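Progress against Task 2.4 (sequence-to-structure conversion) is shown through the following example record, which the project officer requested during the mid-term review.
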Amino acid sequence: MMQRYVGLRARNPANFTMSLPSKGCPLFDHQLQNVLPHRDHLARRVFIFRSGKWDTGQITPQDIFSTNFMCLEVMGREPKTQIAGMVAIVDMEGFGWYHMMQMTVDYVKDMVAMVQNSFPIRFREIHIINESYLFDMVFALVPRNRFVVFA
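Structure tokens generated for the chain above:
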């Protein structure tokens, strides 16, 4: 896993440029990402990503990758999360063509790699809510284990 993690960072360093708190914290003002303060009934951390709040004129896909990574790094430091894992909820409400055009195939592959086999935290479930037909195009590139889609 460490080799895949290092490989992911080496393959596209631009995805990690804002992953320091001193650089990435202003991006949290847009409320794209949230980690709930309380755990679910199975003691898992709950991470929420709201794609519709993404202002493509102000925030790059690499900024999103960096801030998601930063959230995962913080959650990964918690011993309870290391054991129980986490659940991600991806709210696709407001996801439009202008969002999809920002994502390259390599970017989507890097996101999937981070979630599935390159980051040392266990994603127990990933729930996709309010999906749009445009999301179906992106989702076609993703292996479907651990995903629950609510149409």
